[in-house]
Amino acid sequence: MDFELLKLELDGAFLVYNKNIADNCGYKEVFFDSSAFIKHEVDVNFKKDYLFYSEFRTFRGLYVQKNVSPASKLLTVLFGSILVVVVDLRSSSDTFGQSIKFELSSDENCSLVLPEGVAFGYLTLSDFSCVNFKLETEFYDNLTGIRYDDKKLNIDIDIEFEPLVCDDVCYVAYDKVI
After folding, report:
1. Which residues pair with 130 in a beta bridge?
2. How many domains does one find in the chain?
3. CA 82, chain centre distance (Å)
4. What whole-number distance in Å separates Cα of residue 42 and Cα of residue 37?
5. Of the candidates 144, 133, 147, 137, which has an alpha carbon nearest to the alpha carbon of residue 169?
6. Which residue range(s) make up the domain with 54?
């Protein structure tokens, strides 16, 4: 099984277009295949999966792991539509301090690979969303967050409603993370 990869503007981040395998009852979809990732020279060692259920207008993150080995992530929207926001916190990266945002939907049959050392979060745009996270480390070890509306980030999520910021982490200023 092979995947189509699309590099994003942020160094080390890309979309993985998953392949559907049709059968007489519907289809199967492969979200992760280590041999395909190796073929594309993507070195990951996922250890844990999480499933996040969120209602409309919920903003989760921007998640940051402090004082632990940074870990890559694979995000797949299983149901619904989300606006993803990613900020590069790697001082050695060519895209340090830059952010990207884009919509990701379960209708697109794709996953998002994020490199270690980035902050990420998402806003649920549909009535609800189910998002699967594959991680190389324990997600909640030393987890903190940066609010999407931190003035130093200058991220405009361009929506017509007030997001409900999830209180699953302690939020700190961007300056305290970098």
Report:
1. 53, 79
2. 1
3. 10
4. 5
5. 144
6. 4-177
Contact 30, 18 (CB under 8 A): yes
CA-nearest of 73, 79, 88, 67 to 146 is 88
Are β-strands 81-88 and 118-124 bridged in parallel, bridged antiparallel, or unpaired?
antiparallel
**By C-alpha distance, which of 56, 45, 22, 20 is closest to 164?**
56
Q: What is the pTM of this model?
A: 0.85
Q: What value, to the nearest 5°, has the Cα angle with vertex 173 and ends 171 and 174? A: 115
* Residue owning tokens 């910021």: 165
The CATH number that applies at residue 39 is 2.60.120.10
Phi, psi angle pair for 152, to nearest 5°: -70, -25
Can you say whether residue 24 is alpha, beta or left, with left for phi > 0 and alpha for psi between -120 and 50 degrees? alpha
Helix or strand or coil: residue 95?
coil
Note the pLDDT tens digit of each residue in 125-172.
999 999 998 887 765 566 788 888 888 888 888 888 889 888 888 888
Beta-bridge mates of residue 31: none
Separation CA 89–CA 177 (nearest Å): 8
- % helix / strand / coil in the chain, to the nearest 5? 5, 45, 45
